[in-house]
Design goal:
about 400 residues; mainly beta; Maltoporin, Chain A; 18-stranded antiparallel barrel; 2 helices; about 5% helix; about 65% strand
C-alpha cells in the first residue's frame, strides 16, 4: 500500500550491492540456516546533491547483513538484519548509518488456509536533493518507519487445481523524523490499509482477479490539510508459467477523499502490472508499471504519476553475469485542483559481476539519472528547481561464508 522511495545514492547502493551474488554456505543453528554477508562499495558520484551544482565525492558504503531462515514442510520463518554505513569523502554532513530489521512468517494452517505475517523496522535517511527531501538543509532528513502487515488466504491456487480462492490483507505503518523538523514535521504520518482479492481460475495456469483495497493517511502535524482516504477498485489477470513467464496485471480506478473539503475529491485511473520473462534459462527480464495518485512530497496537494521499469539479467558464463535496468517516471504535481508542475525522472544502470570464488564476488556498475521540472502557467520558484543529470561509477565486493 505504501510506497517510500529512497532516491539517489541509497537506492543505488541497495540496487548494486545485492547484484554481487556470492553463494553462501549457511551455518546451522538448530533447525535454522544462518547466512551472514558483508559487502563494501566505492562510488564516485559527480552530483551528490542532485541539483546540477556538481558537488562531487567518493562515497564508501559498508554493508554487513545476516539472514536467519527456518523451514519445515510448507511453513517458513525468517529474520533479516541489514546495516549500511555511508561515508562521503568530500561532504561529511551527508554521512549516514542506516539499518533495517525484517521478520516474516508463512504458515500453512492446512491445505486451504494460510497466513503471512511481516514485521518491519527501518531506520534510514533521505538523500539531500531527492524529491521528498527538505529544501536548503545542511544534512539529510533522518526518519524511521515501522510496519506490521498480515495476509490470510483461503483456497487452492490454479497450479494446484483450485477453482477459486481469496486473500484478505491489512497493514499499519508509522513514519517519524528526527531532524530538520521545521520541514519534516509535515511528512510524519500514521497509515492503515485493508483489502481483499478474489481469484478465479480460467485456465490451468491463469486466474482472473477482482481486488478492492482502502488506505487511510493521517498526518501528525495538527495543521496539516493532507489527511485523506483512498480506495482502489481493480480487476485483472495473474498467471504462472513456471520458469518461462509469470505476472500480474491490474487495471481499474482510484478515488481519494481529502478531509479538507477545499481540496475536493480525486478520481483517476489506476494500473498495477509486473511480469517476469525468461526466454532462456540464463536470461531473465522483469517489467513493471504503475499509474496512481500518490501522496505529496512537497507543498502540492497530491501527485498524479505514471511509473515504469524494465530490467535484464544475463548469465554469460557460470561466473559472469551482467545486469541492465531502466526506469522512468512522469509526474504531475497537483495544487488547488490544477497542475502546478510537471516532473520527469529517468535512471539507467549497467552492471557486470564476476564470482571469483563461491564466497567472494566483484561487481562494476555505472548509473545515469536525470530529472526535469517544468512549471505550468506560472514561473518555477528557484527553490523547487531540482533539474539535474548525475553519473555514478561503482566497484563493489561481497563476501559470505
Amino acid at each position: 500500500m505504501m510506497y517510500f522511495a529512497k532516491a539517489g545514492l541509497v537506492a543505488v547502493i541497495i540496487a548494486i550491492i545485492p547484484s554481487v551474488q556470492a553463494e553462501p554456505a549457511p551455518l546451522k543453528w538448530g533447525e535454522a540456516d544462518v547466512i551472514p554477508k558483508a559487502a563494501v562499495a566505492f562510488t564516485y558520484d559527480d552530483d551528490i546533491l542532485s541539483d546540477d551544482t556538481d558537488v562531487e565525492s567518493l562515497v564508501t558504503i559498508v554493508n554487513p547483513s545476516i539472514y536467519v531462515v527456518s523451514q519445515k514442510n510448507f511453513d517458513k520463518y525468517s529474520l533479516f538484519y541489514d546495516l549500511k554505513s555511508g561515508t562521503y569523502a568530500s561532504s561529511s554532513n551527508d554521512n549516514y548509518l542506516d539499518q533495517q530489521l525484517d521478520g516474516k512468517a508463512h504458515v500453512e494452517l492446512d491445505s486451504r488456509n494460510r497466513l503471512d505475517i511481516n514485521l518491519n523496522y527501518i531506520d534510514s535517511h533521505v538523500e539531500r536533493g531527492s524529491v521528498d527531501s527538505s529544501l536548503g538543509v545542511t544534512e539529510p532528513d533522518e526518519y524511521n518507519v515501522s510496519v506490521a502487515a498480515i495476509k490470510y488466504g483461503y483456497g487452492v491456487n490454479a497450479l494446484q487445481g483450485g477453482t477459486a480462492r481469496f486473500d484478505v490483507f491489512s497493514n499499519i505503518l508509522a513514519r517519524r523524523y528526527s531532524n530538520n523538523i521545521s520541514q519534516t514535521a509535515k511528512r510524519e504520518l500514521d497509515s492503515n490499509a485493508l483489502g481483499g482479492t478474489l481469484y478465479y481460475r480460467v485456465a490451468p495456469k491463469t486466474e482472473l482477479l477482482l481486488e478492492v483495497k482502502r488506505a487511510n493517511y493521517d498526518y501528525k502535524l495538527s495543521t496539516s490539510l493532507d489527511n485523506n482516504d483512498e480506495v482502489f477498485y481493480l480487476t485483472g489477470v495473474t498467471w504462472d508459467g513456471g520458469a518461462w513467464t509469470s505476472g500480474t496485471i491490474k487495471v481499474g480506478s482510484q478515488k481519494k477523499y481529502f478531509d479538507d473539503q477545499g481540496k475536493g475529491d480525486v478520481e483517476s485511473g489506476a494500473l498495477e502490472a509486473s511480469m517476469k520473462f525468461s526466454p532462456k534459462s540464463y536470461s531473465h527480464f522483469t517489467f513493471s508499471a504503475q499509474v496512481k495518485a500518490g501522496e505529496a512530497t512537497g507543498d502540492e496537494d497530491y501527485i498524479e504519476g505514471a511509473y515504469s521499469s524494465v530490467s535484464w539479467r544475463h548469465d554469460w558464463k557460470e561466473r559472469i553475469n551482467s545486469r541492465f535496468s531502466y526506469s522512468y517516471s512522469d509526474e504531475d504535481l497537483i495544487d488547488n485542483n490544477k497542475v502546478s508542475s510537471e516532473r520527469k525522472s529517468t535512471a539507467i544502470r549497467i552492471a557486470l559481476n564476476y564470482q571469483f570464488r563461491r564466497w567472494l564476488s566483484l561487481g562494476l556498475a555505472y548509473r545515469f539519472s536525470n530529472r526535469t521540472n517544468k512549471a505550468v502557467n506560472q514561473p518555477l520558484d528557484p527553490v523547487y528547481d531540482r533539474d539535474f543529470s548525475r553519473n555514478q561509477y561503482t566497484i563493489n565486493l561481497e563476501a559470505t561464508l
